Amino acid sequence: MKIESLALRELKMRLRFPFETSFGVTLHRSVLLVEVEADGVTGWGEITATEGPFYNSETTATAWHVLGDYIAPFLVGKEIQAASDVPALLEFIRGHEMTKAGVENALWDAEARQKGIPLSRLLGGTLSEIACGVSLGIQETPEKLMAKIEQELAAGYQRIKLKIKPGKDLAYVSEARQRHPHILLSVDANSAYRLKDSEHLKKFDAFDLLMMEQPLEWDDIFSHSQLQAQIKTAICLDECIRNANHARAAIEIGACRILNIKLGRVGGHTEARKIQALAQERGVPVWCGGMLESGIGRAHNIAMSTLPNFRLPGDVSASRRYWEEDIIEPEVEVSAQGTIRVPETPGLGYEPRRSKIEQLTVKHKVWNSRVAVTT
């Protein structure tokens, strides 16, 4: 494939409801979309960085800088055999996994379209439908959280994940477990605790949780191994795992029993496949995490979730949970059984709605034959 052009767009999208984590509250998202053209075929990807450096060190501003000043000038005009060639080509850029992932994933979409097969099949996926869970932001009171849980269970979701932070944790989880003793229930701390809080975190063992996600520092694998040795609840690592080497280290020192794979965090489909293969070999289940993506990123998550060893329901939910109107057609829908059918059409299986994308675009730049055009 010859990479003929690369375009980057910034969209302003408003969530249907505020989403609170230990980082803060999100209502508006600056969504970065990557559009590539290779051999006359177009592919789409999404850079899942947020506006501030709170989940990791990347932001929408740094992504625009790195893609515009380094990645696009280097890649446009290049010939590649496959999308999986991209990580090696971009090794000279350290970090910036989310930015790289947006570009690489767009090329995976283009390659699948070029070959006339679904992206899931090109990746090696085997599932015709995937199991879905939901992530519920921190609520003002346990009562408001219970109402949210009831709503999502009625919609069919197979797993409920609760965001927690100190002061809004045990009482909320206790109430959820008392009301729903048999559901798959997990918690996600987004690094809100420290190893000194281990006695407090032990109390979560009473709630028969599927997992406790990233309780400690975002870049500290070792402390998680110390905590896992003290608690019965399975730890799932998220922010700590940015590549297969991190996953191997975490598994070997007993820092976790489950891994969350986010395409942006690990740099794209190529590295995600390495992590899922390693985890499968070691008997560690994986699942797909979410970053409040638009339909483009959500479609990539669906394709990835069809790979072997994605044994647990992921955070891949319906478009309507987040957006009044998504930027793809058809929009992502979840069945009454809490599943999403995997598209069988070439590429992502969902078509970008160009008119809607244009309407929401606030910034746009195209690199074509090493000439940049800004609109």
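The record above closes out task 2.4. Task 2.5 opens with a second protein, given below.
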Amino acid sequence: MRFILIFIALNVFGPLRSQTAKDSIESVFSSQRFTLATTGIGLTSIGSIYGLNKLWYSNENQSSFHLFNDSKNWMQMDKMGHAFTVYHLTRGLKEVYAWTGLSQKKSLWTAAGISMGYLSAIEILDGFSESWGFSLSDMAFNSLGMGLYLFQEQHFHRQIFKPKFSFHQTRFAIQRPEVLGNNFLESLLKDYNGQTYWLSFSPVQLGVKQWPNWLMLSFGHSIRGRLKGDALIYDGTKSHRELLFSLDIDLSQISVKSKLLKNFLEALNTLKLPFPSILFSNGKLTARPLYF
């Protein structure tokens, strides 16, 4: 689901985001642009929720609305996915509404409201599903992702710390393909052992002058050996966390003339590029020559 949301935010409305930040700030409010953006976002949101309800929730047993505590499942990797999704969804929608001529403040809060409303609607659908339920921890990480974007926009007026994502296939999907995926695409969405969530930043943004503005430091979190959401040990395999340190490239700092290429680089900038990495897990420090 998070990849669907990011696709909506960064690609469906890509043409609207082709304006420069300066153009967005200085533009006069356009009711036509506002109507176009709001209608497109509304139809896409409602349509995706309706489709999700028909294709997914209609096949599940329904019950009365209830809560579900899954805060310890998958060592919070799914929660990081929530924060990552809401951050980038808010970012994309904010740029869309800046394009309409809304003030930066109104664009920011409109985007945040839509993002949280959309994810809350999905969470409410979970609340009526017998197999799941409304997750307060999901909502907390939704708020964390939105808060990270809001805080930086309001206090720094730019995004210094950028959440990113990377993935590599693991052998654990073979052990439980019905849960972790039967192929690459399914594993990309389901196998948390192969997913890594990063927070990348450039020291230049923090006042370090002798540093390339496109080169970033990146801290990541992943897990290994988790075969069942709430089980530390399953089928003889014990799971553990992995903390990572690496380098990254800020693709938004690459100067290009093509608006299409600029939009592509902005979308690609949600991904952490492969680099040598240092890993800390099970009390040991190791290095990887190239980590995806």
